Amino acid sequence: MKWKLLAALWGAVLAWTVQAQHVPTLEEAVRGNLIQTEWGRSVRWMADGERYTQMERRKDGLFEVVAYQAKDGQRQVIIPAEQLINPATGKQLRVRSFQLDEKEEQVLIYTNTRRVWRYDTRGDYWVLRLADGRLQQLGKGLPEASLMFAKFAPQADRVAYVSGNNIYVERLADGQRVALTSDGNAECVNGTFDWVYEEEFGCRDGFRWSPDGTSIAYWQSDTSGTGWFDIINNVDSIYPTIQRFPYPKAGTRNAAVKVGTVSADGGATTWIELPGDPRENYIPRMDFIPGTQELFIQQMNRQQNTNRVWIARVGERKAENIFTDTDAAWLETNDQVTWLKGNQWFTWQSERDGWRHIYRISRDGRQMVPITRGNFDVVDELGMDLKRGVVYFIASPDNYTQRYLYEAKLFGKGEVRRLTPADQSGQHHYSMAPGGRWAVHTFSNAAMPPVVDRIALPSHRRVELITDNSRAQEQWASLGLKDKEFVKVKSDSLWLDAWMIKPADFDSTRRYPVIIDVYGEPASATVQDVWQGGSLWHQYLANQGYIVVSIENRGANTPRGRAWRKCIYGEVGVLASRDQAQGIQDLGRQYSYIDLSRVGITGWSGGGSQTLNCMFRYPDVFHTGIAVAFVADQRLYDTIYQERYMDTPQRNPEGYRKGSPIHFAEGLKGNLLLIHGTGDDNVHYQSCEMMVNELVRLGKVFYQVSYPMRSHSISERQGTTLHLRRTMADFWLRNLPAGGR
């Protein structure tokens, strides 16, 4: 009842403040500081599952690391600020992250970081000995900020790391360093990954300590023969400079990737022999089975519809195939494998019954038993309480825009039980402690900023309120804006989820133009009942005199079952644009205030591609569009992503033709703006240039804005984000007449 009371009070506050509404300016919408949302504590649970750590700033401005007891919040400083002083400079280290050894006697500190593609995965590492405060820098003699993925050996007497695409082990007692590999260079990559593995498989840290600390297993990527892409920088010097990196485009040559083991003292690597051409298969996951000298390896074929699981021993070349998973479309990597009952069983997620469920599989692969059953998808597996014999996971059987916590018996009959309270409608996220007794819980919905608390499980009992974001709630209410309204629209015979935002001064007797915000590809979803900072950019557009809409088309990554997600296999972009066109027309039939003669559409990345497909295929439905950082021709995107959903261009040429907007540019009738960053390493500026070339050939009038040396996010360098949004707003107002009629 307390949540219902809060909602009622919240509604009353909103009704009272709407009289004094403050419609955000463009600058306020971009900066996002009108609503100051707290997201709670960024916690790192400790190994015992009873405490968590976090960085905190003291009154003197210095940072320290503190630990809190989960049961009562008792605070303890475990790394005083004085122990984080760089002895060479006398200044405090800027700690990006840290990790304690198993005995909590030493701390590995990551600092002075550098960006590698998406994330700061390169920098300097220090080891702090807590007993006496001794601070020791690793990798002396190696280039500054060149170390990657450093981690303690199980005995915490050594640290392994990558530098210059080679793997090193350094002894803490005397700083002696041994190189485990020496062939690393621009084309041979040891212990980390090339661009496409990082982007599409989330692979960055490319080596593992064995549980006894005697060996290291690692990936090696041979990128020779892979096509290299060049990004030309014309803005930072009077002569252009070129950034080159291997980037395999759909249907082209991949890197050859293999896994080997080597003694932590150095020596020859033993390469594990997996069948098949290493350039026509992937090894997206590899780890040690707990307490053993055995590796658990996932090998996917290039089409990513077959995942073979192998077990290999340290020092041996041969591997045993214990299990194979297949799908007629594609498979995802299994990232949450847990070993049970003394390594007799392991957990696995599969869609083999039409829904994504958790299974347990016997070590020999002969038995596969459902842990969860039902007509719903497991969205995410969060952790386990092995004492109670349960797994915790996120699901939402009844509302695909929301997320809730459930549990199921690991050795039960597949029944599931919801733990999230029934009166908390929205999305719930959990940072769960090892052992599953405690969690930091975040609850929000599209109209309510997050409430963050620490809870006990399985009761879901609140132990401590971390933040209720009352200030953010008041700030949101004071703006007097319209909440997102969640609705259903129909395409063919299928109901799709959608939301819309109306102007603050909305008049239901008038008809308003629409701006659709689309993504529509399998990697993500847009129609989510979760707090997004008040969606101030969308609110700004709405209050220029538009109704802003988002429609979740078939193929989007929502928990509606395998058929929903994979019906687009081999034809990405075709059903999506159809659903967007039919969806907005149905919305206009349902609501008389939707003006179907003024419909705009915009999207970023895959959403930019969908924008072009909609504008070109359905020019009588969509009248104005802004496509940002788009793929014009699917052959231009990388192998792993594009072939996962489309197979190769060689095997599916017609699918690539049908899904690529560049082949339908003849259909353009309305107003179109193309936006792209020239430094985009993900969706290359080449895609924009090819689209421009085709539109020019066809004699089509369009508009274009290019941002020099901005990446896929188009956010780098001074003034970029505000300029981008101002450009978009100006284009809408000039080309899609605003306001109710």
CATH topology of one domain: Rossmann fold
Instruction: Identify the CATH architecture of one domain.
Output: 3-Layer(aba) Sandwich
Low-confidence stretches: 1-19
Give the CA-CA distance, first to last residue: 42 Å
- Our Rg estimate from Cα atoms comes to 27 Å
Tell me, what's the shape? globular
Which CATH C-level class of one domain is it? Alpha Beta
Kindly report the average pLDDT value.
Answer: 95
Number of strands: 43
Q: CATH superfamily name of one domain? A: Alpha/Beta hydrolase fold, catalytic domain
Global structural class: alpha+beta
Tally of contiguous helical segments? 12
The biggest sheet, with number of strands, parallel, antiparallel or mixed sense and barrel status, is: 8 strands, mixed
Question: Taking strands numbered 1, 2, ... along the chain, how are they ordered across the largest sheet?
Answer: 36-37-39-38-40-41-42-43
Strand content bin: 35-45%
Work out the helicity level: 10-25%
What does this structure look like?
This protein is of the alpha+beta class. Among the domains are: 80-179, 6 Propeller (Neuraminidase); 183-324, no CATH class; 484-735, Rossmann fold (3-Layer(aba) Sandwich), CATH 3.40.50.1820. Helices cover 17% and strands 36% of the residues. It contains 12 helices and 43 strands. It has an 8-stranded mixed beta sheet with strand order 36-37-39-38-40-41-42-43, sandwiched between helices. Strands 13, 14, 15, 18 and 19 form a 5-stranded antiparallel beta sheet that branches. Strands 1-2-3-4 form a 4-stranded antiparallel beta sheet, with no helix packed on it.
